[in-house]
Specification:
Elements (H helix, E strand, L loop, with lengths): L1 H28 L15 H10 L6 H13 L13 H36 L4 H15 L2 H15 L13 H29 L3 H8 L4 H12 L1 H16 L3 H6 L5 H10 L3 H29 L1 H7 L2 H6 L3 H4 L63 E2 L2 E2 L9 H10 L2 H20 L4 H5 L25 H7 L1 H28 L4 H14 L3 H12 L3 H25 L5 H8 L4 H9 L4 H25 L10 H9 L7 H28 L6
Antiparallel strand pairs: 1-2
Helix pairs in contact: 1-13, 1-22, 1-23, 4-5, 4-7, 4-10, 5-7, 5-29, 6-7, 7-10, 8-9, 10-13, 12-13, 12-23, 13-14, 17-29, 18-29, 21-22, 21-24, 21-27, 22-24, 23-24, 23-27, 24-27, 25-26, 27-28, 27-29, 28-29
Length: 679
């Protein structure tokens, strides 16, 4: 295990170099420099040139970066370009506030999500399970900044129970931001707990435990949950890493003095030194927490712990981990008739860790089974294709292609159909928005300012009397293309790089590409987006690039895993035998057969891209004024939420519905592509 830890820590070095170089370069290329905020009035051109030379701004970029890294390896993060305060001091004084918020977030999320997920899994298919699923879907689709404003309106302004922001009221100040920040963790962890528990609740070893009289609570808590913890811990670990690295949007909404807000302020001020140093420290913290999560696996699963052991111990324990927490059941075919064969005494239930009795093969008459010998892979449908009296049952059913089979299952999935209906409505509104003239959308009508929703103004009006309904519809011209464009960019680049990494597994190509992926993944998407937007400028194409770049690691990972599962297949060996090039084999043979997980990831990433786009617009890094975007509309209504709730409510509702539609469609595609879930 020590060697594994040392290897992970050594791999952190190239990641930090890449992260620091990317952030330093992007911030340095942004318009303006540290002298932009200086008072240079009254200075001559020669004096200004001397100041630039003294600050080192005349040196090439690579020289300035090398000088920064030389100070960094000596433990000097420098001082802020505008504040003059040590970056380390500024960061370390903000970090405890972020840790308090992260701890409260995880405590709320985990204490509710795991029991709720178990509760839903034990009642799968019932009304309570459906309600829980709907709750998690809403939680994953609701933008945090919008939820924060709504909760602030209710609990701070209307009820007066909690403070609206800051950190001046003790533990009461933590409740609102922690609750809002935990909404995504709560939804994701509940969803993952339910999914993992469904996989194990009907396992054979649980039937064995029940047959031995073990109480149901013990069966669920000890045996089922214990074997479902790995994916749950992964979800929790990633959420902790994101929370500790600074939830910039939540901290901005509640004026929370944390790390995320520090980086937002530094990026807005073009403070290269503070931004680079804060992102480097955040990356170290992020990677370190993920390392702790990986090590936690060894304490949860003995099979993983065996991999960290010495070779001698690993060989001795090679069989045991495979049998722990596992039971063997003898399942007879449903068509088997005990009266036609002689009885063979077999233990129906036993625990693997106790004793494994020898089970002899039993003679079963051939006519007791349905023959599948003449069925090919192309004939397999949703139900098994049987052959009776030499006549294939497929003659009674219409065969479907793979695409037709997916569409068939989507049509039978109510959630997926609901998602497609919402998306169809949004696309229709996007088309309508193309015919709305800008002047009609932006025209002032001051006498009707802050008019509540009515027949004339369905969504009310804003502070300038503008019709919010028209502005929200007009915003679909930006939000939908940004989500689709950013995800398409990430998918194109990520799938290409991930496929190359998988095909050349274990080579320098694989190592370089995966370190590049790790570097991008270690920077929270919204922070990387802010840095890129600061460099390129605020526009829709630049927003697409900023969001797309941050999503590339997701597609690299999923494409690499998909290609790795297929590269050893027989059809790949056949393609090599006939002389096809590696490039052609990869992109015409392997990749088309591994598109299912990529398609599912693409659909789910569309919603995430829209959320990040709205978050950047909320922070002031999105579509420039006066053009409306859902996130900027929510931000504009934040200051007047106490007496004009509709200004922020309807744009946020559109964000939630659109993201929910993509999530529902993604779930439907996952079910349609997964043969276990299609049953």
């Amino acid at each position: 295990m020590i060697r594994y830890i040392l290897r992970r820590l050594l791999l952190l070095i190239p990641v930090l170099i890449l992260v620091s170089f990317m952030v330093f370069t992007l911030m340095d290329l942004a318009p303006g420099d540290i002298m932009s905020g200086w008072d240079l009035e009254g200075l001559t051109v020669e004096e200004i040139a001397d100041l630039r030379a003294e600050a080192g701004l005349d040196d090439p970029l690579i020289v300035r970066y090398g000088r920064y890294m030389l100070r960094l390896v000596q433990g000097d993060l420098g001082v802020g370009d505008h504040t003059g305060i040590s970056v380390w001091y500024n960061y370390i004084t903000r970090l405890p506030n972020t840790l308090i918020l992260a701890g409260a977030t995880v405590l709320i999320g985990v204490s509710i999500s795991i029991p709720l997920g178990i509760f839903a899994a034990r009642r799968a298919g019932k009304a309570l399970d459906t309600a829980t699923t709907a709750f998690t879907m809403i939680g994953m689709s609701m933008p945090g900044f919008w939820l924060g404003i709504l909760m602030m309106l209710l609990f701070a302004y209307i009820l007066g129970w909690l403070p609206s922001g800051g950190f001046n009221h003790g533990w009461r100040s933590v409740i609102l931001p922690a609750t809002v920040a935990s909404s995504m963790l709560l939804a994701a962890c509940t969803r993952q707990t339910r999914s993992s528990m469904l996989e194990v609740l009907k396992a054979d070893y649980l039937r064995t435990a029940r047959a031995k009289g073990v109480p149901e609570k013990v069966v669920v808590r000890k045996h089922a949950l214990g074997n479902a913890l790995i994916p749950i811990v992964t979800t929790i670990g990633v959420s902790i890493a994101i929370a500790v690295s600074g939830t910039a949007v939540i901290e901005q909404v509640f004026a929370w003095p944390g790390v995320g807000r520090l980086i937002v302020e530094a990026v807005a001020q073009r403070d290269v030194t503070t931004t680079t140093g804060a992102v480097i420290l955040t990356t170290i913290l992020y990677v370190f927490i993920l390392l702790l999560v990986d090590l936690a696996y060894a304490f949860i699963d003995p099979r993983i712990r065996a991999q960290y052991s010495s070779s001698k111990k690993a060989k001795a324990a090679a069989v045991v981990p495979e049998l722990q927490n596992t039971a063997v059941l003898v399942d007879m075919p449903s068509s088997y008739d005990n009266t036609e064969t002689e009885d063979v005494p077999v233990e129906d239930h036993f625990e693997a860790r106790d004793e494994i009795p020898a089970i002899q093969a039993e003679a079963v008459p051939a006519e007791a089974f349905v023959s599948f010998a003449t069925v090919t892979d192309d004939d397999v449908q949703k139900e098994p294709v049987a052959v009776e009296n030499g006549e294939s049952v497929t003659q009674k059913h219409r065969k479907r292609s793979k695409g037709g089979e997916v569409i068939h299952h989507l049509r039978r999935n109510p959630s997926a159909m609901a998602g497609m209906i919402i998306l169809a409505i949004m696309v229709a509104l996007f088309i309508v928005a193309q015919f709305i003239p800008f002047d009609a959308m932006a025209a002032d009508n001051v006498p009707y300012r802050f008019s509540p929703p009515s027949l004339r103004f369905p969504f009310g009006t804003d502070h300038m009397g503008r019709n919010l309904f028209t502005r929200v519809i007009y915003a679909t011209r930006f939000s939908l293309p940004i989500g689709l464009g950013a995800t398409s960019l990430a998918a194109f680049v990520g799938v290409f790089l991930g496929s190359l990494a998988a095909y050349y597994e274990g080579t320098v190509v694989d190592e370089v590409l995966m370190r590049f992926s790790d570097s991008l993944a270690s920077i929270p998407g919204i922070l990387l987006g802010m840095v890129i937007i600061t460099t390129l400028g605020r526009s829709m194409p630049n927003l697409i690039i900023a969001i797309g770049v941050s999503a590339i690691p997701v597609f690299i990972r999923i494409a690499r895993a998909s290609v790795l599962s297929l590269k050893g297949s027989e059809f790949v060996e056949a393609a090599k035998a006939i002389g096809l090039s590696n490039f052609r084999i990869l992109f015409t043979q392997v990749l088309p057969n591994g598109l299912a997980p990529i398609i599912i990831t693409f659909t789910a990433s569309l919603g995430t891209a829209i959320l990040i786009s709205a978050g950047l617009s909320f922070l002031g890094f999105g579509i420039p004024v006066p053009y409306p975007e859902w996130g900027s509309l929510v931000s504009a209504g934040r200051a007047v939420v106490r007496h004009a709730w509709w200004v922020t409510t309807f744009p946020g509702l559109f964000i939630m519905l659109t993201v929910m539609a993509f999530n529902l469609l993604g779930d439907g595609l996952r079910d349609a592509f997964d043969p276990k879930l299609k049953k």
